[in-house]
Write a structure and sequence with these properties.
Length: 232
Amino acid sequence: MRQIALDTETTGINKSDGHRIIEIGCIEMENRRITGKEFHCYINPEREIDEGATRVHGLTYEKLKNEPLFKDIKSDFMNFISGSELIIHNADFDIGFLNYELSLVKSSNVIEDKALVLDTLKMARNMHPGKKNSLDALCNRYEIDRSMRQVHGALIDADLLAKVYLAMTGGQETFELNEAKGHDKEEKIKIQREDSFSLKVIKANSSELDAHENFLSELRDKGECIWNHEAD
């Protein structure tokens, strides 16, 4: 199954105030493995960025004014997510902004036409009621290293989200590409170890039984033969 962990950064909180997407980050997973394929772009929002938002992600309009417009990356982005299941933390926010951007370029599609959507925030609230379920809190809970995350960034957060999702849904032991092969090797060793306990029992034939009895007779001649005692 193809899944994509997705995150966005924006100029502000409310799209109703005309705020726009400035960064999209996607991390691909196939059959619960991070594949190394990703989609990442910065976007010129054609407007200033709220100071509060800049404090979160560190991006300013000055840094983004020469980046492509959303309409310029739309086709590549939609093709990348097509047919996948999107893994998003607080999906209503990101999907709302993405669909808003699509409406501005008069797209005939919304995100839900191209992909399924799974909200890890709702999942986490069901799994951990009454606890903090931000991405930071989940990284701490599942011991996901986030030391590289100095500020919020769409691609960094998508990568963390992919690892959190795999941990939340159980059984993922390794996350890095170069560890995947090692994981397969460990699985083979585990199978070999389990197989080693399935021993074939070979019973002694009549000549071997006679030889054993002769050996016991020799021991009886020398003294007590403990192997000849009947069980209590």
